[in-house]
Design brief:
The complex is a heterodimer. By secondary structure, chain A is of the alpha+beta class. Chain A has helices spanning 12-21, 34-39, 75-80, 82-87, 89-96, 101-106, 109-115, 122-128, 142-145, 213-221, 246-264; strands at 5-7, 25-28, 47-50, 60-63, 66-70, 132-135, 139-141, 160-166, 170-177, 184-193, 196-202, 210-211. Helices cover 33% and strands 23% of the residues of chain A. In chain A, the strands form 3 sheets. A 5-stranded antiparallel sheet of chain A has the order 4-5-8-6-7. Chain B is of the alpha+beta class. Chain B folds into 3 domains: 15-22 and 470-616, 2-Layer Sandwich (Aldehyde Oxidoreductase, domain 4), CATH 3.30.365; 31-68 and 103-140 and 202-254 and 259-292, Aldehyde Oxidoreductase, domain 3; 295-467 and 621-785, Aldehyde oxidase/xanthine dehydrogenase, molybdopterin binding domain (Aldehyde Oxidoreductase, domain 4, 2-Layer Sandwich). In chain B, 29% of the residues lie in helices and 24% in strands. In chain B, a hairpin with a 4-residue loop joins strand 26 and strand 27. The N and C termini of chain B lie far apart (60 Å). The chains are: A alpha+beta, B alpha+beta.
Chain lengths: 268, 786
């Protein structure tokens, strides 16, 4: 690991100020990806700005059909939250299935979304639920936030402060874990909302999380798992690696979608 | 009397320190003035080294030394020797053993091969400087598949070693086997891959090396399974007497064979310590471990079975190609040759067998023993071809096995592979295992799985293996005035519990309380010789050395007892910790106490007269055997496999400590299941880069993937090959697990016509096999190369 300057500001404005004065700063929002990346020398920032003391970023609120989760809220907190469990149980389930207990006790929703790992779980929920990513300077709709593998439309120094999830009529998440890493080989979040069904797949696409429109069309006609067997998922733009080629991933998107729909319909 | 006996599940003494973070591993050792070393490794699978420029690295802050090939050649250091038990081709010529230097001299031949050692004041300084060592490479074509490496036109790793062939070995009766095949009613033939895996011990390799210029003596603390043999290797390389090197393995966190061989890094650190006059510490990172630890298995075999019309086995014929990496390493050529040949055919009666094994150089990390080293491969080959025969010829897999097991009255029996099978009751263990599985109600398990849309599968896999490793072991016992008893053994526990089991053997045989015993191991200063860890030899060789020492101490103690009993030595008998002469008796405890008191000793005996060292030598390797059975469910939508039950019956002869034996079986089964379903070392076929370079891609089994196991032991046929009657328990778990797991999955897939899938049976491979139905080329791996 290369040397860097570590700081732990107590407010959002201080964090942004430190970032502005540094040569090459990175925010740390839990560090579950950043620390290993630093140790391997894959990132060599001059400054690491730990957001762990910025208390205004932590917490969960439910009001008027929206679940708002502060960016520094840990996965374990979301998983255990009664508010989230009542409003969007699929979101609590998703959070409870991220990594292992240590990761869930350190990792945060903001960190996950800023990193935008193509195999992370949260991007599926954000895109599937059409959530809004709130930053220190603006609000970004989910569709405009994700910008390919490990890429987002965040500007340099911009900090995610919260994520606003509209409460759907029903939703479900199903993940097929990579046999080695247990990241999502394919994870599908399905949400039935007043404006239609949204299906978002993570772990599968070459450009990160994406909406599976053929499945959305089928589910808008009939929100049940069984009819999905006849839907062919296009393999274009799906990842191929030693654990799953594009054909297998395409197949798993269908299977995981069916399982997510079954869960949304209360049949696991 | 002792407070323990053989057969007690005595709790492990070592667990207190292991579980409370008080173990002392190599990385816990820090010496005054210690420096840190980092290895510069080859980024290419195959390349010529044009030049190495160390100037920039040496100019960096804190950098003390950069060791390169120039140092190695100037010092005249020797290559590291190969100690394979098999060194001869079938035609009588010797195997090819190209020089293996601790540092690459003119060419690199695998990604991760050491090219230089950088030593600095701190680890981060050494890491930074390692990046600054400028090596100019000329890349060459690479080959990582052993079958391709044999083919005409393949990249050649060594000048003067045509077709990359290290050794071409044969065992058995070729003419008789070929005749049996020609006359058989049925012949089945299948190419079987035994996937390449690596051990991933929880403690990576590492060492601390020190040199004392005044005495010209070296001390090496090293995460090694085999301190004596490694010491000899390191001394040979460095042109020093082995007495100049003290080699100590402190607590070692797992080995499984990967810490068995003489690696380059410790010898580099010993040299650097001498050059600098300061201790040098080197600890491998996990990423480097995947590149630089020895790998195991990695065999492609054509296995053929000849049967009569009614299913009697007539002959077994196997031709194996094993990729051993770029060098013949320490015992690398042995595993795909003699190591896999010996136990071919398992516990079945085969009138004829023939085995051909070719070890082939490829541009990968080296191959050396991995838990079982050939016996798991042999068992897998045998059990897969039997299952394949049952499936394709229409026999019931259970009946076909039952019909061909050697009956107990056939023993002792020398197999066509020359294996001396002396004791056991294979049919009994087979039926007992089936009963254990039946008690779990397989029909109910099937109904439950099918009700959830899954496919149910069951398989039973008898195994027969053998012990191995160093045949000699030393046990030294010292009695102290404070009541403690020191026991030093040349075996090497990497976590399996020798500290407990060997103390248990000494205590039970001497008739003293086990808590008095202080255990030392894996230290060349404490034991003049030792065979380390490997080949399930801990109890078989180490345990018998301790028993022999105890028995001899009893004899030494009889004159002391006789004086206390006012009797004659010849009249003294010993049993259960008591010396008896006529009606009077005295305890071993009292005799030990007297032996330390000159007033109580007979004339001519001195205090400490019971201190004793003994060397046990194994005559013939023993034959652990048993039966595994597995019930699985397969999700046909995703290809995911889950276990519903797992049953094991083992014949390890006499069981010293059932709890420790259980641990060995469970760990072995977990490793076997890992190989069967998840683990796979994958190199890019074009570039030779390691694809599975981290735990993100190398699939170790998780706890929730390993089933609960029901384990039983059969002690009705202890071996007479050694005084304890033990047969070795350390590797058997992973010998039986691969065939049990794979055959159970294939049973679950029989409705789809699937007859074979090569390990690991990952979800994608299972799903693709279902989609392909019965379409499978049985000779797709070896083609004409068999």
């Amino acid at each position: 690991m290369e040397d860097f300057t570590y700081s732990r500001p107590a407010s959002l404005s201080d964090a942004v100020a430190v970032h502005g004065n540094a040569d090459d700063a990175m925010y740390m929002a839990g560090g579950q990806t950043l620390i290993p990346v630093l140790k391997q020398g894959l990132a060599m920032p001059t400054d690491v700005i730990d957001l762990g003391a910025v208390w205004q970023l932590d917490g969960i609120a439910v009001s008027g059909g929206t679940v708002t989760i502060g960016a520094m809220t840990r996965h374990a907190v979301v998983a255990a939250s009664n508010d989230v469990g009542r409003a969007i149980p699929a979101l609590a389930t998703l959070a409870g299935g991220i990594g292992d207990a240590q990761v869930r006790n350190r990792g945060t929703i903001g960190g996950s979304l800023a990193n935008n790992d193509p195999s992370a779980d949260y991007p599926a929920a954000v895109l599937g639920l059409n959530a809004t990513v709130v930053t220190d300077r603006r609000e970004l709709a989910a569709g405009g936030y994700f910008d390919g593998m490990f890429a987002t439309s965040l500007e340099p120094g911009e900090i995610i402060t919260a994520v606003k999830f509209p409460v759907p009529e029903k939703a479900g998440y199903a993940k097929f874990p990579n046999p080695a890493s247990r990241y999502a080989l394919v994870g599908v979040f399905v949400a039935k909302t007043a404006s239609g069904v949204r299906v978002a797949a993570t772990g599968a696409g070459q450009d990160g999380v994406f909406r599976v429109t053929v499945l959305e069309d089928a589910l808008n006609d009939d929100f049940r798992a069984a009819p999905l067997r006849d839907v062919t998922i296009p393999e274009d733009n799906l990842m191929t690696d030693m654990h799953a080629d594009a054909a297998y991933r395409a197949h798993l998107i269908g299977v995981m979608t069916a399982r997510a729909v079954a869960r949304a319909n209360g049949r696991d | 009397m002792s407070n323990v006996k053989i057969g007690d599940s005595l709790k492990r003494f070592e667990d207190q320190r292991f579980l409370t973070g008080r173990g002392r591993y190599v990385d816990d050792i820090n010496l005054d003035g210690q420096t840190r070393a980092v290895v510069v490794r080859s980024p290419y699978a195959h390349a010529t080294i044009r030049s190495i420029d160390t100037a920039a690295a040496l100019a960096m802050e804190g950098v003390l030394l950069v060791v390169t090939r120039d140092d190695w050649q100037r010092e005249g250091f020797k290559p590291m020797p190969t100690k394979s038990a098999v060194k001869t081709n079938a035609d009588g010529t010797p195997l090819k053993e190209p020089p293996r230097h601790a540092l690459a001299i003119d060419r690199v031949r695998y990604v991760g091969e050491p090219v230089a050692l950088v030593v600095a004041e701190t680890l981060s300084q050494a890491q930074a400087a390692a990046e600054a060592v400028e090596v100019d490479y000329d890349e060459l074509p690479a080959v990582v598949d052993p079958v391709q490496a044999l083919a005409p036109g393949a990249p050649q790793l060594w000048d003067g070693i045509p077709n990359n062939l290290c050794i071409d070995f044969e065992l058995g009766d070729k003419a008789g086997t070929d005749k049996a095949f020609a006359e058989a009613d049925h012949v089945v033939s299948l190419d079987i891959l035994n996937n390449r895996v690596t051990a991933v011990p929880i403690e990576t390799r590492g060492c601390v090396a020190a040199h004392d210029a005044g005495s010209d003596r070296y001390t090496l603390w090293n995460a090694s399974q085999n301190v004596h043999a490694n010491r000899d290797t390191f001394a040979e390389v460095l042109n020093i007497a082995k007495e100049q090197l003290d080699h100590i393995a402190p607590d070692v966190g797992g080995g499984f064979g990967a810490k068995n061989s003489g690696y380059p890094e410790p010898v580099l650190c010993l040299y650097a310590a001498r050059r600098l006059g300061r201790p040098v510490k080197w600890i491998n990172s996990r990423s480097e471990s995947f590149l630089s630890d020895t790998h195991g298995r990695g065999q492609t075999s054509r296995v053929e079975l000849a049967l009569t019309r009614d299913g009697r086995f007539l002959a077994l014929r196997t031709s194996t190609v094993g990729g051993i990496g770029a060098y013949a390493w320490t015992v690398g050529p042995f595993t795909p040759t003699g190591g896999s040949a010996r136990t071919q055919g398992g516990p079945y009666h085969f009138p004829a067998m023939h085995y051909r094994g070719r070890a082939v150089f490829i541009n990968t990390a080296p191959m050396d023993p991995y838990r079982g080293a050939g016996r798991p491969e042999a068992t897998f080959q045998t059990e897969r071809i039997v299952e394949y025969a049952a499936r394709t010829l229409g026999f019931d897999p259970v009946e076909l096995r039952r019909k061909n097991l050697m009956p107990p009255e056939m023993l002792p029996h020398k197999t066509p592979m020359g294996l001396d099978v002396d004791s056991g009751d294979f049919p009994l263990l087979f039926e007992e295992t089936l009963k254990m599985a039946d008690k779990a109600d397989l029909a109910a398990l099937r109904a439950k799985a099918e009700g959830a849309g899954r496919k149910f599968g069951f398989a039973i896999a008898p195994y027969l293996e053998c012990t191995g490793g160093g045949p000699k072991e030393h046990a030294g016992v010292v009695f102290n005035k404070d009541g403690s008893i020191e026991l030093a053994v040349g075996t090497s526990s990497t976590g399996m519990g020798h500290e407990t089991a060997l103390a248990q053997i000494l205590a039970a045989n001497l008739g003293v309380d086990v808590d008095r015993i202080k255990f030392r191991q894996a230290d060349t200063t404490a034991t003049p010789l030792g065979g380390g860890h490997g080949g399930s030899r801990g109890m078989e060789v180490g345990g018998n050395a301790v028993k022999q020492a105890a028995d001899e101490i009893v004899e030494l103690a009889k004159p002391v007892a006789a004086r206390l009993l006012q009797s004659e030595t010849e009249e003294v008998e010993f049993a259960d910790g008591q010396f008896q002469a006529g009606a009077s008796s005295v305890s071993m405890n009292d005799v030990i106490e007297a032996s330390l008191d000159s007033d109580k000793l007979p004339d001519g005996m001195e205090p400490g007269c019971l201190d004793h060292s003994s060397v046990f030598e194994r005559g013939v390797i023993s034959i652990p055997n048993g039966v595994h059975a597995a019930a699985v469910e397969v999700d046909p939508e995703t290809g995911v496999v889950g276990f519903l039950g797992y049953w094991v019956m083992d014949d390890f002869g006499k069981i010293i400590n059932p709890m420790l034996a259980d641990g060995q079986v469970m760990g072995g089964v977990a490793q076997g299941i890992g190989q069967a379903l998840l683990e796979d070392i994958v190199y890019d076929p074009d570039t030779g880069q390691l694809v599975t370079g981290s735990l993100m891609d190398y699939g170790l089994p998780h706890a929730d993937e390993i089933p609960n196991m029901e384990i039983g032991y059969y002690e009705g046929a202890p071996t007479k090959k050694n005084p304890l009657g033990v047969k070795g328990a350390g590797e058997a778990g992973c010998v039986g697990a691969c065939p049990a797991a794979v055959n159970a999955v294939l049973d679950a897939l029989k409705d789809y016509g699937v007859t074979h899938i090569d390990m690991p049976l990952t979800p994608m491979k299972v799903w693709k096999a279902i989609r392909a139905g019965g379409k499978h080329d049985p000779h797709g791996l070896l083609g004409d190369a068999a």
